[in-house]
Amino acid sequence: MSDLARLSINSETIKQWSLEELVAGCVEAGVPGIAPWREPVQEYGVERAAWLIRDAGLTVTSLCRGGFYTAAEPVQRRAALDDNLRAIDEAAALNCPVLVLVSGGLGADDRDLVGARRRVADALAELAPYAGERGVQLAIEPLHPMYCSDRCVVSTLAQALDLAEPFPAEQVGVVVDTYHSWWDPELDVQVRRAGETGRLALFQVADWVTPLPEGVLLGRGQLGDGHVPLREIRELVDSTGHDGPVEVEIFNPALWARNGAEVLTEVIQRYRDHLV
Amino acid sequence: MSDLARLSINSETIKQWSLEELVAGCVEAGVPGIAPWREPVQEYGVERAAWLIRDAGLTVTSLCRGGFYTAAEPVQRRAALDDNLRAIDEAAALNCPVLVLVSGGLGADDRDLVGARRRVADALAELAPYAGERGVQLAIEPLHPMYCSDRCVVSTLAQALDLAEPFPAEQVGVVVDTYHSWWDPELDVQVRRAGETGRLALFQVADWVTPLPEGVLLGRGQLGDGHVPLREIRELVDSTGHDGPVEVEIFNPALWARNGAEVLTEVIQRYRDHLV
Fold it and tell me: What is the ipTM of this complex?
């Protein structure tokens, strides 16, 4: 088995590539998995993308992303839920087993964190059975607490697992992302809990580097550049019996400014050095 | 009793003021407490500062800050611990009941978060009895997880309370700071735990605003400008029986650029609007 057998490249890591370029680049480099964002898939056409990826012999490891259903206002809320139903359909069409969910944050003058978190639970109750019928597992992604107000009110693995608990594991699981959760004092306990309950839906990796840039969205580090004990966390994840893909998702303008093939070669090298 | 009876101003909030100006300004405005950082106190002279503050009829609610003892290298580590012993002496000289501890982060190429956290526990074991003998309570401050690599490997109240547990409560407590902990899904549970175990040493307030600035150090919001339910958290803290000071600690260059007295007036108004 190739040492890249579990590697998957999230499309945002090499955002300068089109979906076709990403597919061709991964085939060329011997990378078996990709995790596209919805935008490039929609642009290319969902059915057409499904054929493109299947014909190339690649696997779609996850679709990024649904979520953003924390609005209290009914019309906005309904639109968000409908968009998530479409995202589930897209995942199913791509034969993709996992839809990543980023919950959304608080409104402009909103201080009701408890209310927003309650609405996340309500949204899951509507979406989970629909996803289950289509063979798609929803994967709640806790984002780093620095995104709590503007992107994701789900901040820890414990909280994501609590939210998942009312639903069957095949309908709702969680994402373990090293960038978002490496600091968590409960990381080992909660990764084990996710494994034992069959809810470890997806493992994503990026490194933590400082100083963080303004807005803190695009500061993820190339594997090995930062403070995350990547191999240790991969081993922790594997110790639960997980043997699924290792998805590299890095948002970093310095990588986007470079030649895509060069970035992929570097990611593969870093993956070998810090994860395998 | 004045509605400002519990208000204390951390010297960093109005950093443009000298210690003398801060003392005079607080007396003038009817604010009974101040929380100086060590630097302005050392600059003015510790004994002299103690007299200045006592003569003005003000209370020192905490001294900021000790800590930064995560280095593994023995000479650096010893220097850090010695500096903390001095900080305890300074707190005692100021008749200040609480020394705030910010643990420190990871070294440049360090990925050993577990080791750094173990060294925090070791440091407390040396410092706690020394502090206890001098009537100073060490207050472990969990910093927001976005500071985990560069400033503070203690990220949650649960973790701070676990670190405090081996020591008597009068020696080691914790800081509840709305800026650092507002996002924590366990905030209510852990604040109650802190209260019940007599370890709620200090309550600090600042608001959470976005976008965060580059480096994320100086982005704290004026009270009421952001997403933190300040009054709710104050009520939660009080529900444990805590009736100590409410310390306003805001790092914000926009406040530092203004007239100090004007900033103090605004802080007092915001305190009345969002906390009392």
Answer: 0.96
